[in-house]
């Protein structure tokens, strides 16, 4: 079968690989009818999420049909149409029971302390072969998969595999109450769904920071007031917009590959931090080869930029929600300022299985049209060129679905 395979930093290929087989009685094999490319995949190809094993199939977003089930795969039957949540869970450990399915004690083959188990990630997350493939083995199929209503299309469902639940998780742990001011940093697909979710939770004014015109336009379509960090200082602007108070809730939907401003009033300050950012880059990208790949797969040049802006922009006693991914090697955070402001912080990998069923209902009830975020559908055969266009933030390529039927 065809699959997108990680060979090394900056080196991914569409390879012919053997089809997966049932390995455990709790497994299912899913024939994927849709998968997608995510900002998380970019961290791995750029080397800012280290520890990838050569040969791992990439991708953690998928929709498909169950092709085969193990002897204890629960209620699922061959032919069932499912969304595959990015993270795996057992459904019954103390973490799963309390809604922390992404910290399940039993899903990660590296043991209880290893953290989140997800498809197509570094060795520490499994590794479990991913979903940018014709077929995938889904461990712990019964507690992990979610059956789809017939009326939900693949285009809608693929957004529920990871990015809508993650955006919702970000808004949920930001503790948004009706009327609260919220700032979402990053208007990639995850940030856009954080905006949608903040509004679902009743936020008052929602602000959004990025610099890419097409993404800022999407954020405005979704009801956010936007700030371009290359023309305005996001912290100063947010303070002005909130009568000097700051925003009550901030969501970091950027993560380690943050860029620093190249112009505008925030440029000088950020330029002065260039050597600190360089140190952070060395820490977060230990395997980086320094190769430039012709301008492709370029890591962010300011890993702690968004964390710093968010802490500065928050009101006293506000809440910071971090859903942008940082690797274990990232240590820089403005802890003193956060402490002095009595901030609350919540973060982590989305417990997808907690949110997916209720978000399917939200979409079926017509409360949210997730298709606003899906901009591009490409044939699976063109996966590598699609990755390159998404990595380069080509205008209009906000969320990319890969379709094996095209
Ligand atoms: N926590 C989770 O469970 C989870 C799940 C999925 C994705 N993620 C993470 O969410 C993040 C976003 O994912 P995505 O698919 O939207 O990625 P993306 O790479 O498409 O989007 C990131 C956006 O951040 C913007 N950005 C860069 N520097 C910035 C800055 N200084 N200030 C404001 N914006 C800036 C970029 O222009 C881009 O639009 C990634 O880190 C991804 O790994 C986390
Ligand atoms: Zn994803
Ligand atoms: Zn569990």
Rg is 20 Å
Number of DSSP strand runs = 15
Supply the helix-strand structural class. alpha/beta
The residue fraction in helices comes out at 25-40%
Main sheet characteristics:
7 strands, mixed
In one word, what is the shape? globular
Extract low-pLDDT stretches. Answer: none
- Please report the first level of CATH classification, the CATH class of the largest domain: Alpha Beta
- Taken as a percent bin, the fraction of beta residues is 15-25%
What small molecules does this complex bind? Answer: nicotinamide-adenine-dinucleotide, zinc ion
> For the record, what is the CATH homologous superfamily label of the largest domain?
Medium-chain alcohol dehydrogenases, catalytic domain
Written as H for each helix and E for each strand, in order along the chain, the element string is EEEHEEHEHEHHEHEHEHEHHHEHEHEHE
When the domains are counted, the total is: 2
Second-tier CATH architecture of the largest domain: Alpha-Beta Complex
CATH topology of the largest domain: Quinone Oxidoreductase, Chain A, domain 1
Could you explain how this protein is built, in words?
It is a single chain. The chain has helices at residues 39-46, 94-97, 141-144, 154-157, 163-173, 189-200, 213-221, 234-241, 267-272, 274-284, 305-313, 335-340, 352-364, 383-391; strands at 2-8, 11-16, 28-37, 62-69, 81-84, 135-138, 146-147, 182-185, 206-210, 225-228, 247-252, 314-322, 344-347, 376-379, 400-403. With 406 residues, it is of the alpha/beta class. It has two domains: 2-162 and 351-403, Quinone Oxidoreductase, Chain A, domain 1 (Alpha-Beta Complex); 166-347, Rossmann fold (3-Layer(aba) Sandwich). Helix 5 crosses helix 13 (352-364) and helix 8 (234-241) runs parallel beside helix 11. The protein starts with a strand and ends with a strand. The model has no long low-confidence stretch (mean pLDDT 96). The structure holds nicotinamide-adenine-dinucleotide (NAD) and zinc ion (ZN) (2 copies).
């Amino acid at each position: 079968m065809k699959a997108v395979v990680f060979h090394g930093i900056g080196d991914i290929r569409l390879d012919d690989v053997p089809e997966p087989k049932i390995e455990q009685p709790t497994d299912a094999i899913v024939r994927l009818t849709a998968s997608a490319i995510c900002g998380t995949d970019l961290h791995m190809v750029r080397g800012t999420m280290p520890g990838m094993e050569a040969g791992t199939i990439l991708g953690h977003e998928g929709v498909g049909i169950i092709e085969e089930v193990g002897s204890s795969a629960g209620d699922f039957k061959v032919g069932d149409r499912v969304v595959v949540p990015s993270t795996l869970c057992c459904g019954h450990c103390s973490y799963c029971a309390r809604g922390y399915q992404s910290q399940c004690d039993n899903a990660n083959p590296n043991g209880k302390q290893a953290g989140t188990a997800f498809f197509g990630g570094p060795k520490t997350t499994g590794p479990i072969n991913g979903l940018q493939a014709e077929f995938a083995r889904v461990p712990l199929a019964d507690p992990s998969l979610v059956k789809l209503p017939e009326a939900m299309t693949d285009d809608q469902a693929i957004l529920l595999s990871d990015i809508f639940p993650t955006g919702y998780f970000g808004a949920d742990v930001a503790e948004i109450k009706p009327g609260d001011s919220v700032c979402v940093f990053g208007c990639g697909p995850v940030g856009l769904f954080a905006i949608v979710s903040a509004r679902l939770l009743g936020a008052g004014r929602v602000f959004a920071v990025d610099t890419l015109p097409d993404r800022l336009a999407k954020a405005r379509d979704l009801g956010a007031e936007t700030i371009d960090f290359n023309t305005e200082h996001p912290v100063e602007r947010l303070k002005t917009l909130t009568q000097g108070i700051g925003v009550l809730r901030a969501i970091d939907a950027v993560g380690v590959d943050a860029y620093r401003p190249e112009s505008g009033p925030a440029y000088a300050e950020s330029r002065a931090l260039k050597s600190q950012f360089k140190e952070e880059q060395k820490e977060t990208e230990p395997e980086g080869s320094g190769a430039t790949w012709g301008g492709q797969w370029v890591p962010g040049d300011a890993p702690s930029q968004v964390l710093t802006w968010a802490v500065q922009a928050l009101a006293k006693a506000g809440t910071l929600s971090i859903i942008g991914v940082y690797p274990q090697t990232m240590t820089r955070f403005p802890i003193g300022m956060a402490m002095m402001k009595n901030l609350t912080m919540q973060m982590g990998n989305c417990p997808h299985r907690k949110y997916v069923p209720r978000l399917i209902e939200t979409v079926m009830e017509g409360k949210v049209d997730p298709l606003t975020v899906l901009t591009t559908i490409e044939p699976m055969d063109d996966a590598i060129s699609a990755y390159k266009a998404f990595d380069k933030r080509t205008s209009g390529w906000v969320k990319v679905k890969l379709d094996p039927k095209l």
